[in-house]
Amino acid sequence: WFIKALPATALDGELWLARGQFEALSGIVRTFPPNDQEWRRVRYEVFELPNAPGSFSERHQRLAGIVAESKFSQLQRVEQRALKSNHELRAWLMEVVRAGGEGLMLHLASARYQTGRNNALLKLKLVQDAEATVIGYRAGKGKFIGMLGSLELETDAGLRFYLGVGFKNADRLDPPP
């Protein structure tokens, strides 16, 4: 029923419950057979029309019509704001971060649709991070003897480093492959 209620148009977005609820959402999505009562809590928050013509602003306006025409309350368009100053941008970023968000996606209003990373779509966060691949482990010491101590990571650029903070004891006892 969830998928059948969606429009036939290609949409880009994310399934959503609430901030800090990713694990609960993941559980709902992975449950088979699906639990209808749980799925009624899920929203599809859309922000783009893949491969559609026009500028981002034009596509986002069309997206508003598509969402309204669907009459499906669980299909929602992600809020977009045109900001006039760096001060407004910083204020909105702080509002999102205080509410538990990671940051903001900045779209160039005049941009045509492009796949992949590009300068027309940038992520703004208070703390910068990067992707890395787990390539090994270090054994724990002290109170972590017999558990994971740290992950050995490698970036796409070949930089290797260890990360040993932020793990729950359950993760240290049963680390990912």
Structural features, described:
The protein has 177 residues and is an alpha+beta fold. It has five helices and eight strands; from the N terminus they run βααβαβαβββββα. The longest helix has 15 residues. It is globular, with a radius of gyration of 20 Å. The two termini are 36 Å apart.
Give keywords.
single chain, 177 residues, alpha+beta, three-stranded mixed sheet, 24% strand
SSE blueprint:
Blueprint: E1 12-16, H1 22-30, H2 36-39, E2 43-48, H3 56-70, E3 75-77, H4 86-98, E4 103-107, E5 121-125, E6 133-139, E7 148-154, E8 160-163, H5 169-173
Parallel strand pairs: 2-3
Antiparallel strand pairs: 1-2, 4-5, 6-7, 7-8
What would you say about this model in short?
The chain has 177 residues and is an alpha+beta fold. It has five helices and eight strands.
Distance between the termini: 36 Å
Number of strands: 8
* Stretches with pLDDT under 50, minimum 5 residues: none
Apparent shape: globular
Q: Number of DSSP helices?
A: 5
Order of helices and strands: EHHEHEHEEEEEH
Rg over C-alpha atoms, rounded to the nearest angstrom: 20 Å
Lateral arrangement of strands in the main beta sheet: 1-2-3
| Secondary structure: helix percent | 25-40%
Strand content: 15-25%
Largest sheet descriptor: 3 strands, mixed
Structural class: alpha+beta
Mean pLDDT across all amino acids: 92
